[in-house]
Amino acid sequence: MNQYGRVAKNDRCSFFGNVSLGSSVSLSELRELYHVVILAYGAESDRNLGINGEDLSGIHSAREFVWWYNGHPDGHDLAPDLQSSDTAVILGQGNVALDVARILLRPTAELSRTDISSHALAALEKSSIKKVYLVGRRGPVQAACTAKELREILGIKDLHVHIQEADLVKTPIDEEELKNNRIKRRIYDLLSKAATESSKQTTGQQELHFVFFRKPHSFLESDNKRGLVAGVHLEKTILKEDEDTRKQFAVGTGQFEDLESGLVLKSIGYKSVPVDGIPFDYNKGIIPNVGGRVLSHTSSGGDLAAVEEGVYVSGWLKRGPTGIIATNLYCAEETIASISEDIENGRLGSLCRQTKPGREGLGRLLDRRNVKVIPFSAWEKIDAEETRLGILKNKPRVKFTTWEDLLQVALH
Ligand code: NAP
Predict the structure, then answer these.
(1) Ligand 1 pocket, 135 CB below 6 A?
(2) What is the DSSP code (8-state) at residue 169?
(3) What gap in Å lies between CA 7 and CA 347, rounded to an integer?
(4) Which of 91, 136, 307, 409 is the Cys-Cys partner for 293 at CB 3.0 to 4.6 Å?
């Protein structure tokens, strides 16, 4: 936030909040207004499993759940049912899956001192979820999470961690995978240690079960309440090595088992959404690009002759939904280097010879459309008020979680 603040307060930067690409302003209009447009709107949709029962109620994407507990205004009304069942199943074992499991399992007295949204805290205080299953289609050697995040969840007080010893047995290919990857070795060691320690522990108020080598086959529907999820039908898997990539992938064995639960969170990855006026690679879920330069066709490979003049992309929209904040910093630097190079090499020549209306023009256009633009000074009002309310409650902030409240504070 401090970094954002420094940038936003620079005279050469204008912050236009509450503006939606596509509805408030189109990409082609932005291209008319500015010499260069950088698309950095991330990934705000979800990958689907494409299996039976995925539409049953009680199944949410992890993204929706994260939006809900983080106070995103579009996640305000999710109302996940945390009371009808004592079990939650999370599909996937990446960092988002761990984040979600941590929120379900961490003592609410601790959560109350964080900036979690008030509606989520109230629901979690009444939650009857005691057991959380984290289901991965591959093994502990391939778990997608990172060490810091794993350590955080394993460190929750009074948490009983369950890991089948048999799942920790390594094959020679696993050994090879670990030999070349320090991060994966760290994860494997943490899981092994947790398995040994928990086998000595007899009680624990909450349970976290790591379920490996299982992939979701379909969702089970409740007999009592039609339309409601009752669990997941899982297929046991084994790993096979891809000869080209040398990576191990999961294949079904035809053996099945059920995991009962009234709450299922799919944490299998985010997905970017396309924007009108620019190609989109639906297979990779990204805007096709080379080093951040947007390509005119998905099939144009790395040919610089086929780039869209003056449009660039950065972040998850450029690479797909992987990587931490630092990865996105390097990614942004690469895009900026491409822009600088294009200016120096005259690739933006025809564009740069024309004067463009820039921020004044954008301001006029949004004004004509009656868009309630939030300048940075108005964002600071939201920040100050959230922080003030937080001090009263001994928290970092109390978030406003509806568009009405946010606009009310910002514009008055
Ligand atoms: P992720 O790391 O890609 O993990 C996705 C998980 O879903 C993997 O376990 C994957 O298994 C599984 N999966 C994917 N497709 C599946 C399918 N069809 N059936 C069953 N399982 C499937 O994604 P993420 O957790 O959404 O995180 C996105 C990125 O944000 C990651 O790079 C993450 O590190 C980062 N992040 C960082 C932090 C942090 O630094 N604190 C917090 C949150 C997120 P396979 O491995 O078998 O594909």
Answers:
(1) no
(2) P
(3) 27
(4) 307
Compute CA distances 123 → 78, 88, 250, whole Å. 11, 15, 36
CA–CA separation, 397 and 169 (whole Å): 45
Q: Are 293 and 44 in contact (CB under 8 A)?
A: no
Interatomic CA distance for residues 308 and 38, integer angstroms = 12
| 59 Cβ below 6 A of ligand 1 | no
Six-digit token string for 170? 């390594």
Q: Which amino acid is at 204?
A: G
CA 284 to CA 287: how far, in whole Å?
9
**Average confidence score pLDDT of the chain:** 94
The reply to whether ligand 1 has any atom less than 6 angstroms from the CB of 52 is no
Q: Which long-range contacts (CB under 8 A, 24 or more apart) does 254-257 make?
A: 256/217, 257/214, 257/233
Reported in sequence order, the residue ranges of 34-184 that DSSP labels E, i.e. its strands, are 37-39, 45-46, 59-61, 87-91, 131-135, 159-163
Which pTM value belongs to this model?
0.94
Name the closest-CA residue to atom 16, ligand 1.
268
* Residue 297: predicted pLDDT: 78
Question: Tokens representing 343?
Answer: 């200016």
Q: Calculate how far, in angstroms, residue 344's C-alpha sits from the geometric centre of ligand 1.
A: 39
Whose Cα sits closest to atom 21 in ligand 1? 92
Q: In this predicted model, what pLDDT tens digit does every residue of 154-167 receive, in sequence order?
A: 999 989 999 999 99
Read off the DSSP letter of residue 396: S
